[in-house]
UniProtKB/TrEMBL annotation:
Residues 20-67, 72-115 form the Chitin-binding type-3 domain. This is Chitin-binding type-3 domain-containing protein. GO terms for biological process: carbohydrate metabolic process. Gene3D superfamilies: Carbohydrate-binding module superfamily 5/12. GO terms for cellular component: extracellular region. CDD domains: ChiC_BD (cd12215). It comes from Photobacterium aphoticum. Residues 1-20 form the signal peptide.
Length: 275
């Protein structure tokens, strides 16, 4: 699916948690943090998924994180972690959102993303998105409310659960929100350091997802894209655009760093949504 693959390089000096790798099975329901092997490669489940075959890529939204190891290392406070590093901390699995050292993983951390299984039960009533008295340009207002602490804006989650029926696509749409949220951080926090390689990785992950959703829209399989649901205010749409522009600038405006995707969607998703 991807022409240039960048492995998620994990540290080797840190003790590893005891978690066995099993062969991926189409009939098994996997939860966040599950380790599987498929066609000789190792993957960590980024969220609950069923029947979605792992593919070697750098994406965080398709349900699997490709790794070069068959264990998950325990967090070490002295280790400098790179974007995509996967660690265990007190029984929870996290992936590094940014280059980070000396910050303990936590579900509310801006540098670590906890891999959690999202509750797919729609809310009974519409969710209030933000406080109307807050500054509409602030990071807090743009990011919106996340009352359950799963890292996904509550109103976006409700919109996704209402809009889409396919459970695999629902999980992907929820997972890509972490990448979209990162764009807001890039715009509003100048201290975030990201290398050209890491910027290209994030930009290509977003581009790949949007290529897939455009394909599904053209085929009449979905009526609205997740991006439309996510960037649903002027400032959210503006910061999305500024964030993608800033990522591209951090690649040193390298057009060769951008990739094309054929087919546009993971094979298992295309088959599942067309059945």
């Amino acid at each position: 699916m991807k022409k240039g693959l960048v492995a998620l390089i994990l540290g080797f000096a840190v003790p590893a948690m005891s978690l066995a790798t099993e062969i991926w099975d189409e009939s098994t329901v996997y939860t966040a943090g599950s380790l599987v092997s498929h066609h000789g490669n190792t993957f960590v489940a980024s969220h609950r998924n069923h029947g979605n075959a792992p593919e070697v890529n750098d994406f965080v939204w398709d349900g699997w994180l490709y790794t070069t190891k068959d264990t998950i290392d325990s967090y070490d406070h002295e280790t400098a972690y790179r974007v995509g590093n996967i660690i265990d901390f007190k029984g929870h699995v996290y992936v590094a959102q940014w280059p980070i050292k000396g910050e303990y993983p936590h579900h509310a951390s801006s540098s670590w993303r906890q891999l959690v299984n999202v509750d797919l039960t729609p809310a009974a009533s519409p969710i209030t998105d933000t406080d109307p008295n807050e500054n509409p340009k602030s990071l807090e207002t743009v990011r919106g409310l996340d009352n359950d602490g799963d890292g996904i804006r509550d109103s976006y989650k409700q919109a996704v659960l209402t809009q889409y029926d396919n459970p695999v696509f629902v999980q992907m749409a929820l997972s890509i929100s972490h990448e979209y949220d990162d764009l807001y951080r890039i715009v509003l926090d100048e201290t975030i350091a990201i290398s050209p390689k890491e910027a290209a990785q994030k930009l290509n992950s977003i581009t790949a997802f949007e290529a897939c959703t455009k394909h599904l829209f053209r085929e009449g399989i979905i009526q609205d894209s997740p991006l439309t649901l996510f960037a649903n205010t002027i400032y959210r749409a503006l910061y999305y655009r500024l964030g993608t522009n800033r990522l591209f600038a951090r690649t040193n405006d390298d057009l060769d760093a951008l990739q094309t995707f054929d087919p546009p969607c993971p094979a298992s998703l295309s088959k599942d949504m067309n059945d």
